[in-house]
Amino acid sequence: MMASMAGGMDNAGRTGVRVVVLGEPGTGKSSLVVSVATETFSENVPPVVPPTRLPADYFPDRVPITIVDTPSSKEMSPNLVAELKQADVVVLTYACDKPATLERLSTYWLPELRRMEQVEVPVIVVGCKLDLRDELQQMSLEQVMSPIMQQFREIETCIECSALKQIQVPEVFYYAQKAVLHPTAPLFDQESQTLKPRCVRALKRIFILCDNDRDGSLSDTELNDFQVRCFNAPLQPSEIAGVKKVVQEKLPEGVNERGLTLTGFLFLHALFIERGRLETTWTVLRKFGYDNDIKLRKDLLPFSFKRALDQDGALRPLEIEDIFSTAPESPWAAYPYKDAAERNVFGGFSFEAFLSEWGLMAILDPVSSLANLIYLGYPGDPATALQITRRRSLDQKRQHTQRNVFQCYVFGPHSSGKSALLNALIGRTFSDEYSPTMNQRFAVNMVELAGVRIMKGARKTLIMREIPEDGVAKLLSDRESLAACDIAVFAHDSSDEKSWRRATELLVEVATHGENSGFDVPCLIVSAKDDLDPYTLAIQDSMRVSQDMGIEAPIPVSMKLGDLNNVYRRIINAAQNPHLSIPETEAGRNRKQYHKIVNRSLMFISETLLLYSGQVEVGRLSFPLPLSVMEFLSFFGIHPLQFVPGVYRILMGIGALNGICSINLGLNEVRSFYRVKLLNEGDKTLYLTWGDSFLNACPSDESLMMGDIERALSFSYRSWRTLLGVPSSSPRAPPPPSSQTTVNRGSQRVPPGSRRGEVARVEL
């Protein structure tokens, strides 16, 4: 009966087990390896046997074993240490006829294995040469090894064997393989003789998942379904009755009129382990997705809320602990989730707070969120539990977001009211006592939007993340630090001018970081402590900064008076419009204006130049020439480089900075543009050095002022003949083209295989 219940095995997905045989000289290591490989005893064995492989079908788990023999030595050599670091399990030998070798296990070998880094593997202690043991020895193996096993918990099994008599030789490596595939340590506490807490939690989760009718017991049908799921074989009615009888005899409360209780289910697995059938419990755990650490396997990670027994509308701490009793540990008992959500006077969660805490965990650690949903018995596909939304940059382009959970970074100087802003979100009373925040802190709650009380999606989850002033520099040192931020709030003490100045400095730092990294973020200013008198120029300063940076005016709030001024709703509204309230620094505005000019220039050129075959490179700038013009010039024998000075003027106009519509180049920069390279067909490359043609145009301050971009863009196509001509002040340039060399847009022919409207490029 018990054998049928414990049928089937699971090899934990392993493709092999590596066993290293270690021990004192003369203890029979090599003879043991040769004996298991050949099933015979050999008088002449080499000092060290080469690595030996036992095939997959040697043992029932069908996992091949590689046995590595080690040279006889009384100390650890570097090569031996290297082998041990690759081991899955260690077979540690002593000679039954040499008590000194047994003593060396506890005085040298086992302590030495503990000291070694990266060697945390189970140990099988093997007494070799059993046939030579003194017959007068009265102590049993258990009596001899029990003190050693209590001291060294890594010892999984102790066994005696004889290679000469072929006694228990295969069993040595069976237990070695078993120690890797079905270890005892994660499941059972040898000292207390009880299941370990994490094992109990995992088995409790499995019991709940199999209890389909949720009556707290496994009926005969549910027990049979469990057997089929785990071991691919049904139980006969007599076998089910036998299982319940065994449990009831040992533990009466393990069975009731409805079937096997949770207590009985746990006792049954403890009984399997006690009888050495660890593979049974491991098979069950692995069928339900657990790894050797009794945590859900990572490949499984792509609930009933009615668990409050008192039905008081809130989940008390003990009820929260009960919900997570099927997980390895309660995830909300420690930072950053502890005290992050609103609680009632008894420390319990409302339904909204419960959902808010899940929202916080999904944002901060989505993998852990999925794992815990599975631990709690999430019935659907885990991949559907979380929704991945668009990047904020796409939301900004579409001027809309699909998000229901928003993360708000709260910046501000010391004593600016940041913590009070978070406390009010989760319903905590205001305190005049100042306690500086040393580390980042989180607060989360649901915010109801105005005028949409009964509409679906009317409530959004707001996560506020307090950034201590001392931690801003470290945060912004990461280029992607604002990627997870949906909106930033800058709090300041409205009565303190220094607090205001520091808050605006932080605003500029964050805005600059967003502009440089590409993670622009909407920003709001919160004037805290509105119950105090503002400093003299507070209104003027706030209006100036708001207008200069293009964001809303500061939101006045007083947490002390309870005047929140709808600040959380306004934060949500700003986050829902990611294209608005984005601050602009002066450098950012200049950069945008520059890109705007470049884009306008490129549009002008792309509309004019349609087809290309040649390319002119000026320093680091390359400019394609129209095919029709190239052919036209070649027909009349005119060199294409006659176009370069005019093209250079256009390029310099495109490079205009800061809205001045001109560019100043020093002499060194001008020299970098002297050499003009014409890339023609094949490998033919022509160069032209312009010499002093530019230097002659330089004023006395050694800077070169190049043309007006607006004026350049105002040229019509018919003026290109003049625009591209060689200036008369350039003596070394080729002669200007003939007045007959004009390009008529209306009569331009498009060669076969070419397309109109191809985009012209200026590559830097």
UniProtKB/TrEMBL annotation:
Keywords: Calcium, GTP-binding, Hydrolase, Membrane, Metal-binding, Mitochondrion, Mitochondrion outer membrane, Nucleotide-binding, Repeat, Transmembrane, Transmembrane helix. It is found in: Mitochondrion outer membrane. It comes from the Eukaryota. Belongs to the mitochondrial Rho GTPase family. This is Rac-like GTP-binding protein RAC13. Residues 726-764 are annotated as: Disordered. InterPro entries: EF-hand-dom_pair (IPR011992), EF_Hand_1_Ca_BS (IPR018247), EF_hand_assoc_1 (IPR013566), EF_hand_assoc_2 (IPR013567), Miro-EF-hand_domain (IPR052266), MIRO_dom (IPR020860), P-loop_NTPase (IPR027417), Small_GTPase (IPR001806). It is a single-pass type IV membrane protein. Its main location: mitochondrion. The keyword Lyase does not apply. It comes from Acorus gramineus (Dwarf sweet flag). PANTHER family: EF-HAND CALCIUM-BINDING DOMAIN-CONTAINING PROTEIN 7. Residues 755-764 have a biased composition (Basic and acidic residues). One of its GO terms (molecular function) is metal ion binding. CDD domains: Miro1, Miro2. Residues 14-182, 403-577 form the Miro domain. GO terms for cellular component: mitochondrial outer membrane.
